[in-house]
Amino acid sequence: MDTRGRPRTPALSPELIAREALAMIDEEGADAFSMPRLAARLGVKAASLYNHLDGRAAVIEAVRRLVVEEMDVSAFDSLPWLQALAVWGRSYRAAFARHPHAISLLATTTISSPATLAMYEAVVTALARGGWPREALVDVLTGVESFLLGSALDLVAPPLMIDPSGHVPHVPVLAAALADSPGSDKAARADRAFTTGLEALILGLERRLEQETAGA
Amino acid sequence: MDTRGRPRTPALSPELIAREALAMIDEEGADAFSMPRLAARLGVKAASLYNHLDGRAAVIEAVRRLVVEEMDVSAFDSLPWLQALAVWGRSYRAAFARHPHAISLLATTTISSPATLAMYEAVVTALARGGWPREALVDVLTGVESFLLGSALDLVAPPLMIDPSGHVPHVPVLAAALADSPGSDKAARADRAFTTGLEALILGLERRLEQETAGA
Asked: Is domain A14-214 classified as CATH 1.10.357.10?
């Protein structure tokens, strides 16, 4: 947009910096991410970055925002919490699966940006409306999110994750289970495992809430 | 042990190489792991490593074995699958929490070593004995493991994972839930979220199996 008088490169902005940082993490891994290297990719001095985003943590938060924007939070406004968790969960896993190197980085840095906080607000508000007591909201949110992050890791695992060849006589049940696991396609198998886990987790949370409510 | 005639350094062995590789990953991160750098840490030529472990994948499998040896698989022999999953799950998360940099590396490389295959054999054998049909075993195993890996990531997250300060008026439910989340201690909160998720997941799997068995 801002090309008047600066035809060579787009003007530096928090959005542009975040997009380049995410591209860098996607291409080179989270450990390769540093402010000097990000500045080099953008062809600017590192100090210029600080005019737009206040340090490394702020860049990581801007990256998180880009990933969170790929998630579907709308269901929490329109569906009961059980179904909304399922819709959000699928989009959450899909977003992180597109940015696998960002998983461990974003899972281990403090969340503070308004966009991400707004997503969590939508989740816990729906849980509270569904009857979850306030003191359980963070536990339920964190427990579900752990499953989603782990599932995103599984989605980027190699096609053959468990290879029993050469050891089949020692692991007969496992070998038969792998051979019988329907669909040779890795994505289909990962999807099925995700659905099994997500449905069980949500079913278990539903039962747990029923028990709490009955006991209260 | 093998110090006769070689007093300076312990003899190179697959075990020693794996321990040094895990220490390297723990200290420097998974992306820093390479065969030349591992050889340098051990003070040997890279070619020497290949006399003991057949390449990078074999070293990673040897590292996985060390992590797996920290997990408690014994419960699958003595307890019903529901309780055994809970015991194993706690030890699984604890083992990866001690080696957080290994999580994404081991979650995304093919599993082929006898020790790790034996652990999975114990899990799926217990599930099958509990009544799970053969074609569901891998899905249940993978779904539970995704939760455990994600929970290990959460355990190494910073003390304040969600920081709503400065935005509290926009996220009132979240801010109140965080303020009301019992225990200011990060480990206690992570433990509670883990327990909430694991119990819900296992409860949901129990219900699902009951439904499948009733429908069959």
From this structure: yes
A207 has a chain B CB within 8 A of its CB: yes
- Under an 8 A CB cutoff, do B142 and A193 touch? yes
- Report the first-to-last Cα separation within chain A, whole angstroms: 58
Domain ranges across chain B: 14-214
Decide if B146 and A147 are in contact by the 8 Å CB cutoff. Answer: yes
Distances (CA, A) of A76 to A33, A87, A91, A113, A144: 34, 9, 13, 20, 15
Cα–Cα distances in angstroms (integers) from residue B156 to residues A46, A175, B178, in the given order = 29, 33, 18
Q: Which residue of B109, B142, B194 to mutate against A (max A Cβ within 10 Å)?
A: B142
DSSP 8-state class, residue B10: P
What tens digit of pLDDT does each residue of B37-85 get? 999 999 999 999 999 999 999 999 999 999 999 999 999 999 999 999 9
pTM of the model: 0.90
User: Which tens digit of pLDDT belongs to each residue from B129-181?
Assistant: 999 999 999 999 999 999 999 999 888 888 788 999 999 999 999 999 998 87
Q: Which of A106, A173, A195 to mutate to test the interface with B (most CBs of B within 10 A)?
A: A173
**Is the CB of residue A58 less than 8 Å away from at least one CB of chain B?**
no
Question: What type of residue is A28?
Answer: E
ipTM of this predicted structure: 0.89
